[in-house]
Structures are given as C-alpha cells and as structure tokens.
Specification:
By secondary structure, the protein is of the alpha/beta class. About 25% of the residues lie in helices and about 15% in strands. It has helices at about 35-40, 50-60, 60-75, 100-115, 180, 185; strands at about 10-15, 25, 90-95, 120-125, 140-145, 160-165, 190-195.
Length: about 200
Amino acid sequence: MLEKNTLPHIFITTNHSGKMKGMVSINTSTLNNPFCTKQRKNPDIICSSCYAAKFEQYRPNTKETYTKNAEILTTRPLKPHEIPRLNHLYCRFNSYGELHNSIHFKNLVTIAEHNPQTRFALWTKRLNLVTGNIPDNFTIVYSNPHRTNPMTTIPDNADIVFNVINKKNDTEINCQNKCIDCLICYTEKNRIIYESLK
C-alpha cells in the first residue's frame, strides 16, 4: 500500500508567466502525444511552431510532470482519490499539450463535474473526441490550426473558435490581454477569438 503522500496525483500548474500569469492549468506532455508529434511536422499549421514542445525540451522537470499527468489522465477513468479539488475560479485544460484520446476527455469532464465552483476551458484541435454530456462550467475552445485561414463559424462540439493569425492579416485582434484580465474564453460562448501570431 502506498503512503498517502506518494499516491499518484494530477499536477496543477499555478506559476504561469506572460499571458497566462494569474491562471492555473492542467496539462499533459506534447512530446509524448502521437497526435502532437504528427502535427508538428506539418509546416502549414500552427503546430509547427509549438511553444509547448520547445518549453518542455528545455525544462525536463516540466516534461516529467506533464508525462505523469498523461499517465493518470489518458489510460483509464480517474479513481476518486485522483480527482483534484480546486480552490480556483478558473482553470485551463491544455495550456500545454492536447487531448490524447477519449479517456482523457472524459476524465477532464469528471474533473469539471467535481469542481462546479470552477470555470474550465479546454483548448483542443480534436473535436472528434468531444462527446457526451458536458457540464455547464466547461467551455470547449476549438483551436484552429490554420494561421492563414481564420474561421468565422463555430464547428459542432465547440463553444468558441480561437484563431492565431499572421500579423499582416487585417482581422481585428480581440485577444491581446492577460487571460485573467479578459476571461472571455471562460465566461462566454459563441465567440470567435483572434490572437496575433507571436
């Protein structure tokens, strides 16, 4: 029997900087996700300049932590003692990484269901994995992979579209603040978001 303090647990990132400063997130490694590995090889999509992969490569502790999260979140339904209890108003799923499989998504739904006081937002390119009943405190943000082709309609299974576009594009940028100062992706639905490619 494991000691209580050695039980597997999901790591919650609380020390973000930059745009995510002041927010918390639950992430998995992009380096061991086959979908991410394939996407990064395509020069025509945003994944080819993946900041999460670069960050993990230079911070081995981050890679190890997010890999452990993936082991818990993607292999089987969460056990009751593995479901984190959050003391936060907002939490982002996948500020690093992407959905691995349908088990991963269902476990994120479970986390949201057990934390009704927290507003969750999931960024994903894999809407095919978004199924079943989704709690009211859970927003699905479709992360458009095409930086030269902004989407103007919201696809099925999503609440919001997030476009990252080239600066030369004439589209009005409506994502330029820190997330904690904006919160549109957490508190509103039926929105099209545009962020300038960094």
